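fwd from M.: "can u put these together and see what the complex looks like"

so here's what she sent:
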Amino acid sequence: MSMIDELLRNNEQFTAGFDHAELDASPARQVVLVTCMDARIDPAAALGLTPGDAHVLRNAGGLVTDDVVRSLAISQHALGTREIMVVQHTQCGMHGLDENALALKIGAAKGHPPNANVRFGAFTDLDTSVRASVARLRATDLLLHQDRIRGFVYEVETGRLREVS
Amino acid sequence: MSMIDELLRNNEQFTAGFDHAELDASPARQVVLVTCMDARIDPAAALGLTPGDAHVLRNAGGLVTDDVVRSLAISQHALGTREIMVVQHTQCGMHGLDENALALKIGAAKGHPPNANVRFGAFTDLDTSVRASVARLRATDLLLHQDRIRGFVYEVETGRLREVS
């Protein structure tokens, strides 16, 4: 049986106790979290969020990419959010990742190399990466509110957020 | 006081009870969830996930974008995941969004129109959008495992997942 089938059984239990059908699409706390896909991060638990509170954007690294800017533009202009937290983390797979080695590995698995333009988002210094992502958000012309954008490192060893930028 | 400061206080409480310092970066359940940033969706609750279980990717719509493919390539080739769930949802802000009206709104707020190449990812039919995202993943040459990619609609009214593709 696939793992997805197991998660669907969990979802059946969840629906039996479902109690928040009436929430609004606009986040009640008017805040967006941008963070990594990492399995060790549970945004709701780490920040005390309940359903309806906040938009959550996640990708490999918690990097500010074109897709994150697109999503934030919709979040602010169409759904009323005003603050943004960028949260990258210790022990991230993107930290020190060898992009060329990964491309070679994919090429070996698939029988041909990936498109040479593909970039995976590796970085060499965590705090510098957070600052670069925050700087991009402060500079983009697609956002409405740029005075409350803050960058953090989440320590997977302690659960603590450390402010960087 | 900003909302972010309030969330940081919640994080202090979280760290006091923190009990999973030793988790591995590779997801224990070898599964990735791709879903929307929507504030009403709590992936951990809806699927019965605990820290360390699964990668979670989120953007506006739960659409498969370049950034999602990038993240999934890392997830599969570097961190050992094998299955992918794409979960879009009812009452999504991207469903029926008028892209031109949004561009005009941003232009009015910022004093100049956004780059004409910006696309926000609006869609007109939910099931069709899920199928298109799943099809893109089944066709990309950047993934290692493409036999267990499944598409769903999450009903924000009931919490239930309905399989589409």
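replying to her w this: The radius of gyration of chain B is 18 Å.
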